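User: tokens in, sequence out, please.
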């Protein structure tokens, strides 16, 4: 019964009165405001379901177990029993709409979707994510990332909620200054056959200025990428990654 107030206190999102069926994105930060976990949450009225990166399931469960104290909450790994699908419909702000499906019903659900819609794979969904400018844990997010530099404010980070771990850093940077890095959308030279790998370093005038988080081939935009670069990099700079040139498109408010 304490699940929503508990998660509200642990994350950057306002979850105390989460409406059943309403998917929300939230983060867990460390004491310095660095991003540790990225969560996609939905409540069904009796259970809150959390979707995260497969590599982060065990560390997340370990952390949540430590934070239960005397509260009436239970943490169960349901990865083998349920799957999250991208449901049909226009993309929302967190990449949905999503469908939480029991794995025993997965084949029938996919068949039903395919009768009226075209099934796509993760490459297509990642291309849409990149075009939307949505940062992802383990890709754009590294050990130094704070929410302010990756476009999470007023999205995964609710700016009107009470205290949570790492909030002081978020508020201080928001009110008093700018983060040292920024998330940008890159448009890469489409004439090149080979493209940089995810994680490739970016250079401007032979100086390293950042890295590519996710590279994708978009059906309209061609080769694009989300990158994290130094904030003082000129907006009209031509960046180089693995010999491929790229121009940038600003994603964050100045």
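Assistant: Sequence out:
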């Amino acid at each position: 019964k304490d699940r929503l107030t508990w998660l509200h206190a642990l994350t950057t999102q306002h979850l105390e009165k989460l409406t059943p069926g309403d998917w929300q994105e939230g983060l867990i930060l460390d004491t310095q405001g660095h991003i540790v976990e990225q969560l996609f949450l939905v409540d069904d009225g009796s259970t809150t379901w959390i979707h995260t990166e497969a590599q982060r399931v065990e560390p997340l469960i370990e952390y949540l177990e430590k934070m239960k104290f005397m509260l009436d909450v239970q943490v169960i790994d349901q990865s083998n029993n349920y799957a999250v699908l991208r449901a049909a419909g226009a993309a929302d702000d967190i990449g949905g709409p999503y469908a939480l499906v029991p794995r025993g019903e997965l084949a029938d659900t996919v068949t039903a979707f395919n009768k009226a819609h075209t099934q796509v794979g993760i490459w297509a969904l990642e291309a849409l994510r990149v075009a939307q400018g949505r940062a992802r844990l383990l890709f754009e997010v590294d050990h130094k990332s704070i929410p302010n530099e990756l476009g999470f404010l007023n999205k995964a980070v609710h700016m009107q909620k009470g205290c949570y771990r790492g909030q002081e850093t978020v508020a201080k940077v928001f009110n008093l200054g700018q983060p040292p890095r920024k998330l940008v959308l890159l448009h890469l030279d489409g004439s090149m056959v080979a493209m940089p790998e995810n994680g490739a370093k970016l250079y401007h005038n032979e100086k390293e200025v950042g890295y590519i988080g996710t590279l994708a081939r978009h059906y309209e935009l061609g080769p694009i990428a989300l990158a994290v670069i130094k904030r003082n990099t000129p907006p009209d700079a031509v960046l180089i990654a693995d010999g491929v040139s790229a121009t940038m498109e600003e994603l964050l408010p100045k």
